[in-house]
Each structure stands twice: as structure tokens, then as C-alpha cells.
Amino acid sequence: MALSRVCWARAVLWGSAATPGLHVPRKLQLVRCGLAWGAPRYLFPRQLLIQHFWTPKQQIDFLDIYHALRKQSHPEILCYLEKVIPLVSDAGLRWHMTELCTKIQHGTHPTVHDILALRQCFSNHPLGMNQLHALQMKALSRAMLLTPHLPPFLLRRRLNTHMAVIHQLDKALAKLGVGQLTLQEVKSACYLRGLNSTHIAEEKCRTWLGEWLQISCSLKEAELSLLLHNVVLLSVNYIGTRR
């Protein structure tokens, strides 16, 4: 019952996910109940709940199709990152971003250092959460399995809330330790964060989740745009995902 022992106090992060007029407890307990870890319901797409009704083969086939739709946003996001490189004022940061985009285009999985070196670009102009364009937010919403069919101000609010909740979950998971999670919990955690874990070995899933947590726990609240883009940066070339 590893996850059931972890509590995190941040009810305000639920934002619009909470029903107006209802009392939301200050401490939300992460419970091991399928995919429901105590986070807002919209964090977990309904399609993942098919594990309770479908056979394992049906689940894998469906998740593959669903993830294929999700990955359609990846080239769009990477193209946008290339376009904003000239807007980065610092020459060193421009070089790091160019190198990262080149690595990803050539099929190389970036390191934690590669990604964290760009944190300044994602805390303000041109890639801070408040500077993202509507088309970019729509693509990022699809990558996060959120509806893109909202006005820009609602897309921004939803993405902000979504990543703030995941950031808090990441801190709880890091404190608990990836080794304490079951295989199902590890694969679900990876899928929530952008990695199609259905065909990846348990050890590789744990390694990837460890990299994600290392990045996430290094970021400040103002840098959560980097965590949002990390859904693509860290997953697109990971072993077993280029099928």
C-alpha cells in the first residue's frame, strides 16, 4: 500500500476541477485504486479505465491507437521549438536549444542535463507559460490528452493547473521512491507523463520515470512550461517508442 501512505496538501491546485460549493479537503491522499491517485479526474483519460472491462490484449491495442493519435502533436511542438530559437536572446541558450532539437530530430534521447540547461527559456519569453501561442497550447493539450477545443485563456489555465498537479505528484513520488511502485503504477505514471509504456520493459519504465522526476523536482513553479514540453522532449525518442 505504498501510495496510500503518501499525502500532499495543495487543494487549491484543483482549481476548476473541483465542483463549486463542495468542500475540498486540504490534504488529498494518493490512493492505490487502479489509476485514481487522488488527482483531479481529468488527469486520467476515460480510455485508460478500460482496464477494468477489457482483456489485456484489447487494452494494449486500444492504448497503441490512442497514443498514436497523441503523438501527432509531437512534430508540431518540435517545429515550434525550432521556430522560436532565433527569439532567444542569450547566445548560449540558443546553442543549447539548437543542439537539443538536432539531437531529437536525429533520434537521440536527450539527457536530463540537456533539458534542464534550457529551463531559463521556459520561465519567460519566448516559451514561458504566459507566452505560449494558442496553436502551441492546442498541440500541448493533445500531447497531455486534454481537449484542445477551448478558448486560449482556458487552455492556458487548464495546462497551468494540470502541470501544477503533476508537479506536486512528482514530489510525492520522488519522496516515496520509484522502487516502491508496482509495475502497473509505474506504467500508469509513465503514460500520464507522455510515454507509451505498454511495450516497454519494467526496468526501462522505471529508468524513464526516474529521469522525469529528476527534471520535475529541479524546477520551480515559474518553469513548469518546461515540464509541459518535457512530455515530448523526454518521450519521443525513448527506447521502444519508435515503432
UniProtKB/TrEMBL annotation:
Keyword Transmembrane: yes
Domain Letm1 RBD: start-end pairs: 69-243
Major localisation: mitochondrion
PROSITE patterns assigned: LETM1_RBD (PS51758)
Transmembrane segments: none
Entry superkingdom: Eukaryota
Protein topology in the membrane: Single-pass membrane protein
Pfam families linked to this entry: LETM1_RBD
Record InterPro entries: LETM1-like_RBD, LETM1/MDM38-like
GO molecular function: ribosome binding
Signal peptide: 1-18
Name under which the protein is recorded: LETM1 domain containing 1
